[in-house]
Amino acid sequence: MRLVIIGSGFAGMYAALSAARLRDIHGTSPKELEIALVAPEPTLVVRPRLYEPNPETLTAPLLDVLNAIDVVYVQGSAEMVDTQSRTVQISAGNGASKSLSYDRLVVATGSRLFRPNIPGLAEYGFSVDSLDDAVTLDKHLHGLAQRPATNGRNTIVVVGGGFTGIEAATELPGRLRAILGKDAKARIIIVDRNEVIAPDMGGEARPVIDEALQKLGIETRLGAGIASLDASGVTLSSGEHIESQTVVWAAGIRAAPLTQQIGAERDNFGRLLVDRDLRVPGVQGVFATGDAARAACDDDGNVALMSCQHATRMGAFAGNNAAAELLGVATKPYHQKAYVTCLDLGEAGALFTRGWDRAVEMVGDVAKKTKQEINTIWIYPPKAERAAALASADPERVTDL
């Protein structure tokens, strides 16, 4: 029997750990149940941190962990899924490809930044969506020091007032001073179509964010979108033109395109609709998890967000349940009632909220310490020690905040 997991992000990593854990609990050998993880590199990109400086350091190796728990790493990109023949076509680079059969499949392909067809966006826009994107932006920021000190050089426009946009924008004043000098006057502007910043955060948390933006001198242009970009800057839907040599796009994400190959219902974000066990209804042998899946967190109507907090726990349940079906044991319905947000606010600290109503628990330096602990410890892979790695993937305990 073979269980194939596509993706080495948070959901894919925990799917592999959890499936291996259940296999170990039931005394099944890796020869009887092979668990294979397919990804271009055996690496976890710590995507929630890509707004920080030195993004090239924000990865974690997975090969030693996978070897420790007897998970087979298959290098390559999954290009096609045939759910009738239960095979995955994998491009291994240099024109080479191979086919991998499966008895159960876990789609953990993550998400991609949504880039609309706005004139100039592809040519002049930057992002922190992927490791390559973040490295490109970082090199560009360092290159600004070699340019004339114009308003456009020192002005950065961040498009999107959600979590990613806020974290990128609030980190940028410090990053620019480190590059251009402590006396450099940087101008950061967040542009968002909504009438308020961080509309999903609610009335209790939003004033904390507003205060942080004011403290850092970050401007906003709300109720406006981007009409076009060019070498001189951006033109807003309001007609305003902002001189800028750096535009960071952070306005929305969609499930990775591979989900479109699964003949099942999807939501507006491209996520596969799944049942409480994270199965894809109507498609035999396929589970979806993380940003590839739209899953109910509880019986109150709350749905998992496209975040690493939900992806890790969803991954653990998906891996467990896919393996459980092959082992002939009971599955565990996914649930995630605990929900927190910890939003980095750069030199203004951080914001920690609990619950779907975003009740504020910590702000400022205290919340910042928690954010740093999350970013540098909690979200990293377990050590490559078999017992500890397997124990870390109990689906009932992953991200139990």
Automatic annotation (TrEMBL):
<dbReference type="InterPro" id="IPR045024">
    <property type="entry name" value="NDH-2"/>
</dbReference>
<keyword id="KW-0560">Oxidoreductase</keyword>
<keyword id="KW-0274">FAD</keyword>
<dbReference type="InterPro" id="IPR036188">
    <property type="entry name" value="FAD/NAD-bd_sf"/>
</dbReference>
<keyword id="KW-0285">Flavoprotein</keyword>
<dbReference type="GO" id="GO:0003954">
    <property type="term" value="F:NADH dehydrogenase activity"/>
</dbReference>
<keyword id="KW-0520">NAD</keyword>
<dbReference type="InterPro" id="IPR023753">
    <property type="entry name" value="FAD/NAD-binding_dom"/>
</dbReference>
<feature type="domain" description="FAD/NAD(P)-binding">
    <location>
        <begin position="2"/>
        <end position="315"/>
    </location>
</feature>
<dbReference type="Pfam" id="PF07992">
    <property type="entry name" value="Pyr_redox_2"/>
</dbReference>
<protein>
    <submittedName>
        <fullName>Pyridine nucleotide-disulfide oxidoreductase</fullName>
    </submittedName>
</protein>
<comment type="similarity">
    <text>Belongs to the NADH dehydrogenase family.</text>
</comment>
